[in-house]
Amino acid sequence: ETVIRCRAAVAWAVGKSLSVEEIEVAPPKAHEVRVKIVATGICHTDEHVLEGNFPEVEFPVIVGHEGAGIVESIGEGVTSVKPGDKVILFGLPQCGECSFCLNPDSNYCLKSHISSSPTGLMADGTTRFTCKGKAIHHFVGTSTFIEYTVVHETAAAKIDSAAPLEKVCLIGCGFSTGYGAALQTAKVKAGSTCAVFGLGGVGLSVVMGCKAAGASRIIAIDINKDKFAKAKEMGATECINPKDFKKPIHEVLTEMTGEGVDYSFEVIGRTETMTEALASCHYNYGVSVIVGVPPAAQKISFDPMLLFSGRTWKGSVFGGEDFFSSVFILNFLSSSFCSLALVPSLGTTEKNLAPSSLLPPIRYL
Ligand SMILES: NC(=O)c1ccc[n+]([C@@H]2O[C@H](COP(=O)([O-])OP(=O)(O)OC[C@H]3O[C@@H](n4cnc5c(N)ncnc54)[C@H](O)[C@@H]3O)[C@@H](O)[C@H]2O)c1
Ligand SMILES: [Zn+2]
Ligand SMILES: [Zn+2]
């Protein structure tokens, strides 16, 4: 059980770009697992953190939370995985014992890094990463922009040894978040009409979820028209660019559908598009889901009549899913899933975050 020296992309402070550093990774303590990261996606949430737009993150920190790799060593008491196992890491694992985990309607866990404070530390209140003599924080219990990370055993789900890590890492956040928002949070019905605002990795996964649910119309919305070809490949039936219209997009959608869509999803992270998405769904039985991370410290003011008439406005964290069951589903679907070459495009995020010499981020388009 030795300290590993390897490289990581460290975020030293808000607003600073990542810097690739040599780092010491301590051995896993009891109920912890040290994992060699083989592939990591880049989620826009990582960028929100770097911009200071994500609550309660302590710097310096190693972000990245969409990773897959191979177990290098295990701490005392770990039975779920062994060295050599392939795993996907999850930012919102389930301990299976707390009041949230015991409630079948919940996918939060009181012991996760998202719910517990202070954040960025392991269960014993310390970190496993040091760089230049300084302790570096973990991010949502995963920290994947690093060659070796340490996670709690519940955050590492063992997967089939044949699984392609560079694809299944997306199950760690983007895919599960989007797919789950459609199937688990909104519970999209067959034959319905859906609108998806934002066609990054998460939005494209919402499109896939709506398609899997049997939606008959999936209207994909983005200000970047380069996203439309991929959205159509994933199941969008129509693509629209708000820049092509003078009127607000909720009016455009209402005209396109008669009474508004049955389900709308905001997958960008802007307060204006959150309200637009709400106003786009049917005034009585429409359901609108906020998936994009709201910018820190911004408030929304909206006409409460939008809700009074019957609409439902919901949020969805990590797709509202229990990750271990989604891995189960994905194992079940694995062959078709992998051949679909699920491909979130990373847009601006990739440019800013790719720790070039470090890890091969998943690239699409
Ligand atoms: N709820 C969760 O658990 C969860 C999990 C993962 C990511 N997220 C959040 O979901 C959001 C999307 O993540 P991503 O990785 O797919 O991001 P991304 O940057 O890859 O994609 C965002 C897309 O939105 C488009 N866009 C930007 N402004 C727009 C506008 N005004 N109108 C229409 N389209 C616009 C961009 O062109 C881009 O295609 C982020 O806010 C991210 O933090 C939430
Ligand atoms: Zn994410
Ligand atoms: Zn729990």
Automatic annotation (TrEMBL):
Its EC number is 1.1.1.1. It holds the Pfam family ADH_zinc_N. Homodimer. It comes from Pavo cristatus (Indian peafowl). Its main location: cytoplasm. It catalyses: a primary alcohol + NAD(+) = an aldehyde + NADH + H(+); a secondary alcohol + NAD(+) = a ketone + NADH + H(+). This is Alcohol dehydrogenase 1. GO terms for biological process: retinoic acid metabolic process; retinol metabolic process. It comes from the Eukaryota. InterPro entries: ADH-like_C, ADH-like_N, ADH_Zn_CS, GroES-like_sf, NAD(P)-bd_dom_sf. Keywords: Acetylation, Cytoplasm, Metal-binding, NAD, Oxidoreductase, Zinc. Residues 30-159 form the Alcohol dehydrogenase-like N-terminal domain. It is an enzyme of class 1 (oxidoreductase).
